[in-house]
């Protein structure tokens, strides 16, 4: 971010020992970032192939599938952005999903070596640590003199409540290391004489960010755009902004050309390809931030463990603010203290930071305001902006994630200023107490994990190949969707262990079919999948008529299913599945099954 030259460059090192001390602090920060990352994910490290994230096992299964699928496309020369392995016969447009293509390709050797669950855990852990390290490098090399101040700001951002909540299986949102890199390279475009090289670098980085976290890239671009506009319009910065504008625009044009060339096919698929959709399958009112959530504490924190956590988020993976009142008060005090001692140039930066925090905080409240769990009729700005293309595909609650880096930077600025000025002992003690009271309750606690049902021997031993032709269709019951992720877990195992391909109906993905042309999770249910879902949820076996049997046969023919499989243990991501009711329902529809290894199997005759 733009700062006064004195802050950007900092004083020259006084002596080699000071440089050594600085490198020692760097090492401590790296180790602290890694230790916190392992601490947060420690429940999974106990046994990655058995443990699952309690509150979001469905997303974990999805990302494990994406890693296995990405490696498979790399070794088989297939399209990584569109697949017919799931949702047969229509397929799935992964360009409008979170395909994490770069991760899948880079980590493909690890996936083949140790399997998707371990690769998922490695990426999740590295995401958290790399986010802290990237922010620390940006702060300590560009924005503040004190490496301690940089460390506090960076570690807060990386392990802020929003990041920790998204560590519940979101490999896209925990890739927060992309944001400081984008900020650094965006402001590098101001440098005279380097616009071509800097534009190419930023263009490549934008393409990488799009393939890992497109929504996060969009939010970063909006936040940077708002910051630059407000900063440039400040009287103290207008001349500097005007002088840098030609070089900045040239670099930005190069960025657009490079990123556009690299993303031409993904963008075509996203906006005009098959199985695309517009908008989102999630309710923007439900997935908006409660105003009271900004002053609340998250569940996975010391305060949450002490019983101060709340359930104001739409789900445990979306605690995007939850800063707590002490931190909000400290942030205001920091801003005022910085403002009072700032010159006009620094005030331009503070003014722009405040604008970003306020605008994104208010937008995160969604179409209508909610307070302490109660919905009001007060319309919010997102009610208008949320109708715009691209914006209508974003979840408003996640806009609050932009506020955390602003807070982290203000904390770093304040600590840097405190360490560079002599103050009374009582003042130093008061500031120390303020930081401890605000930040200590937010220290993260490990994610909740549990054991998940094992992949059946029918799959791990490759027995399925005796009942399904190469590339044929196998379906578990209940059919695979977000709440029944078994089918994609089995498929991920088969792909990563090079057993060959089997396809499945349905699956966990975003696709067309929602109201008003919007997207939805999974395909529109068909009679067979609806009957199995009813049995799994309620434990009731439906009444089967001749009409029911005709509909089921039509569904199986539409999917070209060769084998229907029920394991002894079905994983339900949100509730316990009544396996006995599912078996009795499948038997009523398909006849008596045969026992193969550790599954019940129904063979479906092909016409």
Q: Would you give an account of this structure?
A:
The chain has 607 residues and is of the alpha+beta class. It has helices at residues 5-9, 16-40, 42-45, 57-76, 101-106, 108-114, 116-143, 147-158, 161-166, 178-188, 195-233, 238-262, 264-272, 302-308, 325-341, 344-363, 382-385, 403-420, 425-439, 457-460, 486-496, 527-538, 546-559, 579-590; strands spanning 51-53, 82-83, 92-93, 368-371, 374-379, 449-451, 473-476, 510-512, 519-521, 561-567, 594-596, 599-603. A hairpin with a 2-residue loop joins strand 4 (368-371) and strand 5. The protein is elongated. The model is unreliable at 1-15 (pLDDT under 50). This is DUF2079 domain-containing protein. Keywords: Membrane, Transmembrane, Transmembrane helix. Residues 80-381 form the DUF6311 domain.
- Based on helices, strands and strand pairing, what is the structural class? alpha+beta
Let me know the number of strands: 12
The overall average pLDDT, rounded, is 93
Oligomer kind? single chain
Helix-residue proportion = 40-55%
Strand content: 5-15%
- Which of globular, elongated, flat, extended, rod-shaped describes the shape? elongated
Rg calc = 26 Å
Q: Which stretches of 5+ consecutive residues score pLDDT under 50?
A: 1-15
